[in-house]
């Protein structure tokens, strides 16, 4: 197993209003932070840029208050306009090399890896951390390629020292094995956003992760 570069974030909340069961995402985010979430990504699909911008600016107030880094999914415009900590892009989005060129101040650039060949690309080299997407197929994101599974994390861990973020149907029941296989961080949508108590759900996940690290 390759040693991963130190990565200070272990529980990563990916949030969108649509996944919060009609509850205020700002409330969900704050509860999740109080439960132990280390970093938050705002992922809003199918909304106009000005709406995305407005949601991001509101969430930034919450994350700033708690000194939690805010990452924006896909949109460089929104990420730069709100002064986010970083951005997360997928294979179909603005390539990491372009993000670096346009936004040199980006402090954390995440990039999703869907197939092993993508690990060797110059775009992967330009990223700070990698989303291993998806570990397990999930109803939250249906346009995925194949499942990595826990074995996929182990395989990637042997090939890169970049921090690995496990995403896709992760929860308190499977977080331990993902960390033991070499993931640095567990990212979730439903396990926190859809929980009756986002705070308790985050806290349970955080305990599982801390015990596995
Ligand atoms: N990327 C890969 S899977 C996924 C994303 C954004 C969704 C994860 O959602 P959930 O509800 O935690 O399975
Ligand atoms: Mg994307």
From TrEMBL:
CDD domains: TMP_TenI. Mg(2+) binds at residues 74, 93. The keyword Hydrolase does not apply. Pathway: Cofactor biosynthesis; thiamine diphosphate biosynthesis; thiamine phosphate from 4-amino-2-methyl-5-diphosphomethylpyrimidine and 4-methyl-5-(2-phosphoethyl)-thiazole: step 1/1. Its EC number is 2.5.1.3. Its cofactor is Mg(2+). 4-amino-2-methyl-5-(diphosphooxymethyl)pyrimidine binds at residues 41-45, 73, 112, 141. Keywords: Magnesium, Metal-binding, Thiamine biosynthesis, Transferase. Belongs to the thiamine-phosphate synthase family. This is Thiamine-phosphate synthase. It comes from Parapedobacter koreensis.
């Amino acid at each position: 197993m390759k040693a991963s570069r130190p990565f200070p974030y272990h529980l990563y909340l990916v949030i969108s209003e649509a996944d919060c069961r009609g509850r205020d995402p700002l409330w969900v985010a704050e509860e999740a932070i109080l439960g132990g979430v280390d970093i938050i990504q705002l992922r809003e699909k199918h909304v106009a840029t000005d709406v995305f911008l407005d949601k991001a600016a509101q969430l930034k107030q919450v994350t700033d208050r708690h000194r939690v880094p805010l990452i924006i999914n896909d949109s460089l415009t929104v990420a730069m306009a709100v002064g986010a900590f970083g951005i997360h892009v997928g294979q179909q989005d603005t390539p990491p090399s372009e993000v670096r060129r346009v936004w040199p101040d980006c402090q954390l650039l995440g990039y999703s890896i869907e197939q092993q060949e993508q690990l060797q690309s110059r775009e992967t080299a330009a990223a700070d951390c990698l989303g291993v997407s998806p570990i397990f197929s999930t109803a939250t994101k249906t346009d995925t390629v194949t499942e990595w599974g826990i074995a996929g994390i182990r395989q990637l861990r042997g090939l890169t020292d970049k921090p690995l973020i496990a995403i896709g149907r992760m929860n308190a029941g499977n977080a331990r094995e993902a960390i033991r296989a070499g993931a640095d961080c567990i990212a979730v949508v439903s396990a926190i956003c859809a929980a009756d108590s986002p705070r308790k759900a985050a806290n349970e996940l955080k305990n599982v992760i801390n015990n596995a690290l």
